[in-house]
Amino acid sequence: MQDVTVIEKWLTSYLSLGAQSAWLLVVFFIIFMTLVCAFFARIFFNRLEIQLQKTKNHWDDILLHAVRRPIIFMIWLLGGSLAIFSGSLVISDTTSNILMSLMEPVRKVGAILLIAWFFIRFIKLSEQKLVDPTGIDTSLDHTTISAFGKLLRLSIIITVSLVVLQSLGYSVSGVLAFGGIGGIAVGFAAKDLLANFFGGLMIYMDRPFKVGDWIRSPDKNIEGVVEDIGWRLTRIRTFDKRPLYVPNATFTSISVENPSRMSNRRIYETVGVRYCDIDTLHAILKDVRVMLAAHVDIDHSQTLMVNFNKMAESSLDFFVYTFTKTTDWVLYHEIKEDVLFQIAKIIEQHDAQVAFPTTTVQLEMEDMQAMPNVNQALKK
């Protein structure tokens, strides 16, 4: 800004020495030079981008894309302020004083906003690159990166707002004091909003789930894949592809299950055979255990149980309790299907059958003789 002040002093002395008639030429020259500087700046950034694309470092690309547009706008801001200053020197005193009083704060505020724009762009581009699988390698997940990005952007916005107020002549200490007193009233009026804000903060800190996780709640009718965690709402895509918006404060008072973090999927099925196959049941159970122990998709480090469990009304029930290695939903059902088919084949190999609900009526001979109608029906 010191260079701009020197140029303004030179313009003041030049136009005051009888050169007021040449002010249009001066304004045209300033605008022309601004255009030339902006043009060469674009060429410089384009060539620099080509060179930086040859490197494997992502941070130089982020820095270039973040600073390119703010620099171009800064050139136009400085050139435009100089053109307005030179024009104000040859017009009426009242208008000149108004323009002179407005130009300095506008230039300061513009420079501050452009610097803030650069930092916000840098944070946003860094966040996108850190989340991108082909971008920068990091141990942080998408949820943590998004939380840090939002906090940094919020900090920059608050800081820039205070600096702008200070540059416009307002007392920052007075603004902070007003914010402290008014914050109490705002807190009571916006308690739900604050509850959602702190609920989102707890999600970012405790990380019970992250973007991309499948979650569900036994307390509420909530189930789906997390798409976005905001400061007020969490967007969940249900399995029928409908968006579900849940206030963050809800997660502070309910239980949340995260099936995406399961280590295995469980196969727990009950199979029944007929009562007349009780002599072969022991062999069937033994062969089912052998089959599961040899199955390549079953996790043998987990609990594996095959036991006769119940004498039901029309079947002898045994249960199969085991875990698959995969947690993939589609692959799990393919493995489960294969296990059930093999169990059915083992039952068939022992000349047994899977039971289904049946009813057997047993009549004594005395009862049959006492029922003439039944005897006549049987003779027919």
Biggest pleated-sheet summary: 4 strands, antiparallel
Helical stretch count? 11
Average pLDDT level: 78
Helical percentage: 55-70%
Low-confidence runs: none
- How much is the radius of gyration in Å? 39 Å
Q: Which of globular, elongated, flat, extended, rod-shaped describes the shape?
A: elongated
Number of strands: 7
> Can you tell me the number of structural domains?
3
- DSSP strand (E) fraction? 5-15%
Structural class of the helix and strand makeup?
alpha+beta
Q: What strand order characterises the main sheet?
A: 1-2-3-4
Order of helices and strands: HHHHHHHEEEEEHEEHHH
Instruction: Kindly report how far apart the N and C termini lie.
Output: 118 Å
Structural summary, described in words:
- With 380 residues, this protein is of the alpha+beta class.
- The chain folds into three domains: 2-172, no CATH class; 191-260, SH3 type barrels, CATH 2.30.30; 263-349, 2-Layer Sandwich (Alpha-Beta Plaits).
- 59% of the residues lie in helices and 12% in strands.
- It is built from eleven helices and seven strands.
- The chain has helices at 2-16, 23-52, 58-88, 93-131, 142-167, 172-189, 191-206, 278-294, 329-349, 365-369, 372-379, and strands spanning 214-217, 222-229, 233-237, 243-247, 265-273, 305-311, 316-324.
- The strands form two sheets. A four-stranded antiparallel sheet has the order 1-2-3-4. A three-stranded antiparallel sheet has the order 5-7-6, covered by helices on one side.
- Strand 2 and strand 3 form a beta hairpin.
- Helix 1 (2-16) runs parallel beside helix 3 (58-88), helix 3 (58-88) packs antiparallel against helix 4 and helix 8 packs antiparallel against helix 9 (329-349).
- The termini are far apart.
